UniProtKB/TrEMBL annotation:
UniProt name for this protein: Large ribosomal subunit protein mL54
Chief site of localization: mitochondrion
Superkingdom of the organism of origin: Eukaryota
Coiled-coil positions: none
Keywords: Mitochondrion, Ribonucleoprotein, Ribosomal protein, Transit peptide
Gene: MRPL54
Compartments, as annotated in UniProt: Mitochondrion
InterPro entries: Ribosomal_mL54
Record flagged with keyword Transferase: no
Stated family: Belongs to the mitochondrion-specific ribosomal protein mL54 family.
Amino acid sequence: MALLGVTTTFQGFGVALRPLIIPSCTYIFAQRNYARPLITSKKKMKLGPAIEKVRLPVETDAEKLVNYVCGSNPVKENPQDIKLKDDSEYPDWLWTLRTGKPPPLEEMDPNTKQYWRRLRTMAMKRKNVLRKAKGR
């Protein structure tokens, strides 16, 4: 305990307290540092058992890769891969889906929500680049 502005430290119960300057006629408030670990040695801190990576089998049979969707049911006990059908059995819109990069802004319709969302993200990226260059 400290009186009349004298500093004190306390180590007890596994809690480290910072030194406090306690003027007379005040209440004592202790600041506990719960966020930092008390053990500073890395050897004493253990994070638990190491987790091994799961290696999934890779299909190498070319005939099966061409005719089936391999790995479509990886969770089941006896996975049955889905057999691919002829192209004519799938809907026409499936073949018009864009699988590459998104279209440039010039090709997009300005009356759509995607256009304005894309324009906003491009403006934010440009502003961040300018702000970063200004700070140098």
